[in-house]
Amino acid sequence: MPGTAIAPYAQAAAVVDPNGNVVRSHGVVSVTRVEAGVYDIVVDAGIDLENAVPIAVGATGTVFGFALVQALDIVGQTFRVVTFAPHRPGAYTDLAFCAIVP
């Protein structure tokens, strides 16, 4: 059971492990690992995701890498995060990340 994130200034926030499991969250309905390094995040119905600017970053303690929101892939209450490591150019890689919807 994931823990509750304390994110008083965020509409939604989540810490996600490399397998797509939610470690803790606030305002997040689900996270699905679509394929290696690709995750779909569904937020609560009351969040206006179409006008928000979701942010994702690699989590501390993970293999050095990056997490990005694919801003053009926002559909309804879902946005997509991709993660990759610089030592594997051109390939998405499963990494832990944090995502926030301010």
Overview of this structure, please?
By secondary structure, this protein is an all-beta fold. It has one domain (10-101). It has strands spanning 3-4, 12-16, 22-26, 28-35, 38-43, 55-58, 66-69, 78-84, 97-101. The strands form 2 sheets. It has a 5-stranded mixed sheet, with no helix packed on it. Strands 4-5-8-7 form a 4-stranded antiparallel sheet, with no helix packed on it. β4 and β5 form a beta hairpin. The relative contact order is 0.28. The model has no long low-confidence stretch (mean pLDDT 89).
Number of strands: 9
Major β-sheet profile: 5 strands, mixed
| Mean pLDDT level | 89
Number of discrete helical segments = 0
Content-based structural category: mainly beta
- Helix percent band: under 10%
What is the total domain count?
1
The rounded Rg comes to 13 Å
What are the low-pLDDT stretches, counting only 5+ consecutive residues below 50? none
Distance between the termini: 24 Å
Instruction: Report the principal-axis shape.
Output: globular
Q: H/E order of the elements? A: EEEEEEEEE
Our estimate of the beta-strand percent is: over 45%
Lateral arrangement of strands in the main beta sheet: 1-3-2-9-6
Short note summarizing the structure:
The protein is mostly beta strands. 0% of the residues lie in helices and 45% in strands.
